[in-house]
Amino acid sequence: MQALEERDYFTDYEILKDPYAYFEAIRAKGPVYQPPGKDYLIVTGFEETLEIIKNHEDFSAIIGLAGAAAPLPFTPEGSDIKDQIEAHRDAFLGGDLLVNYDDQQHTYSRALLSHLFTPSRLKANERFIAAYSDELVKDAVANGGVELIKTIATPFVTMVIADLLGVPQEDRQIFMDAIESGPTPGSLESGQNDFSAETHPLVVMGGYFAGYVQDRRANPRDDVLSQLANAKFPDGSTPDAMEIVRLATFLFGAGQDTSAKLLGNSMKYIVDQPGLQDQLRQDPSLIPAFLEEVLRIEGSTKQTARLARRDTRIGDLEVPAGTKVLLALSAANRDPRRWEDPQALVLKRPRIQEHVAFGRGKHVCAGAPLARVEVRVILEKFLEHTAKIDLNEAKHGPRGARNLEYEPSFIIRGLAELHLKLTPAENFVAPAKVNAAGAREAQDAAAPARPRLSTAGTTLGALLADPAAKAALDKHFPGVTSDARMAMAKGMTLRTVQKFAPGQFTNEALDALDAELAQLKPQ
To answer: Which residue segments constitute the domains of the chain, with CATH numbers given?
Structure first.
């Protein structure tokens, strides 16, 4: 039988199911270990992990998305390969994304996020988080239970980041659908990491953000998208529009997934650790400390990767330029040399915020403050509105013998689903419900009239979402509503799209469509 430490972390589903046993087997070989037959190192030591992720001179983040097992697009030569990396940056998976940037390129792009994570903006976002989470949790409690991951966690964090980034209300459902249908980052499934596929969430959302940025640069407004679209680099220069698009899109995609998984991982401990939920329910001020301990013991990100760009050392080990390194964050957070009783969840653990669940150094997770707030707030709501939270035994088995399925990813640690049973609190008041006819009448009464639609003021996505407008669009531009290439243009108006395809979208045809749109009656 093959020894655990000799198996392949990147393709072995049993290791995916329990990466901790694998990392402990690796740890037994030392804090830095090269598996037999592999061309990368695995680092499980806490101090060694810190040493590497804070050393931005010797280590590049270029393989952060691809992972340490992916082959390099060139053959490293010499003791310093910095120039070789930059010459081949376009050949790396996600080489043009913030998570993989180095040096000034990273510093400058990271500075653009200062317009998002300001105290006032986060405070306003927290008000949205509180109201939205209260609504979601009340509905779940009233129903007696819920599947947490897909029904609450993913839509919740998607809407939260959409609110922070200022994504228009009419487009938010499209973003939610794209995220829901997309792959988990670092999926082990073949082809799931093709960022160029037109249905990939980053491509779909990128089309919308391209429209937002172009519109806000031409017509700035008093909103966060305008601030982001018109932000300057620290030297006063203007970023390329696509850099803004890539930054916003990746922040959206990466942030929602890790936060959603953190909520699921946290709830697992709340349900199954004896006495924990009662303790948190009686004293909600313990929730932040609880979250930090969950981040340590089962954070959403299992690993990241670095590439040695010049000859260096990790501790006493000589590391040549071109060496790939897997940083096992989840193992570093359980290093017994750093943490007492590392396998146990301990509230108020001393110096808990020193964990590396969000990384460290210049590449520390930009969305960490948001993740902490959104998961804390929705957990407060779950505990406030319930007397007891449990798992559905028909789905997950009895306590002590749970059956939990995890996403197939070498990056993300997160449950595929988590079915909860929710017992209402004594003072719980369920949301008002009416019969089907009443609900229909109330919905009709509250529904806004169809807004005035036009080719200059309405996005293509909004036109496609309106059945009458969609029919008019297909009438004047046959086949356009089913043209897959239009996915990238849904965030733009047709008058903007015209600039890219003037032969297809003539002034005469657009004027005729405007005349028909103006005749549409309010719903």
So the answer is: 109-424 (1.10.630.10), 436-518 (no CATH)
